[in-house]
Design goal:
six-stranded parallel β-sheet, Rossmann fold, 405 residues, binds adenosine monophosphate, elongated
Amino acid sequence: MPTFQTLDELDLQGKIVLVRADLNVPMKDGHVTDNTRLVRFLPTLVALQEKEAKIVILSHFGRPKGKRNEDFSLRPVVSVLNDLVGKPIAFAEDCVGEAAQKAVQKLQAGQILVLENTRFHPEEEANDPTFAKEIAALGDAFINDAFSAAHRAHATTASLADLLPAAAGKLMQEELEALGNALEHPQKPLGAIIGGAKISTKLDLLHNLIKKVDLLVLGGGMANTFLAAQGFDVGKSLFEPEMVGTTKTINSEAEALKCKILLPKDVVIASELKEGAETQIVAVDAVPKDSMILDIGPQSIAETRMHLAPCCTIIWNGPLGVFETPPFDRGTNEIAQAVADLTKESGALSVAGGGDTLAALAHAGVAKELSYISTAGGAFLEWLEGKTLPGIAALEKAANRARTS
Ligand code: AMP
């Protein structure tokens, strides 16, 4: 049973509802380049409009470092959201003070107002209680729909839930349920595919996963350090010598926990990283000194497919090669297709997340074919690490408060 309340459990009929969203979408030259996060947020807006709530959206945008800076204004995002909603959305120049208060007072039932970037105030990231109280005074209830910001203990991601009746929005609920089904109470066997550049950034994640998964497929730059620890020469490949000891510990812990770690047996190498570079496929014990490992090889792809086949649940973070530079995208593309096929044909639950992973899956053309793709980067990783996310903890506290009152 979820330990947080959902939007439908609160009485929001006609109320002023403060909604923490993540409107931090990619932008270039003042234009939104990917509206996925906005589209995924729409069900919450629709549900609140059905309840004739007056909707006040709070969000950060970029890193303005606690100062007003027009480059980080939410105004361009509002016009895109406007088009998606199909009705005019109001905008206030500040998230506190007179501008915010006046704009909230003008709201009609079902209308939406976006307040300017919460990070224009240093108090947001400092999780300042007075600032949180000032924002809380604008509304009657708080809906947190920003899973992707839930790893931050900021005023609008955490403290607001202490000050108002609080619940998860539709996207937050969807994220928590999908991630819970994948890692907390998964159908077994459970496999994880972890790639990306460095082990040092994913150590906590690996330690947590070996406790939970039956199979851990490792690829990308981080696999090189595991290979080096087994005595293989990885040439000029990305490699973290200071992490060799750690990989040995992870290996022995995994063995004791009966988690199978699958490393590449063959790799794609080149002497330089450039598109269309001349490549060679070699066994991991035959990497020349002047070469770099830039992708997993065909035997590794086949072996990964075979080991993933019986999995009922698959979690994925991190590309298996330098997917941005073809032909080093092949391993990631083929495994992405294999995961999509297992999802469709065997009914496996597949969940992916984390910045580059989404780009890699989109590049492989399977972004819509997995069971669930998280909108979160850092929060997804911290959740995989088994950490308590402050935004979620605050919602749980609010739910306990509601149950005991
Ligand atoms: P991360 O943010 O840790 O998931 O790392 C993603 C990055 O890892 C991508 O930009 C990939 O190009 C990179 N990557 C994947 N495989 C390799 C490799 N074998 N060598 C160097 N970088 C890699």
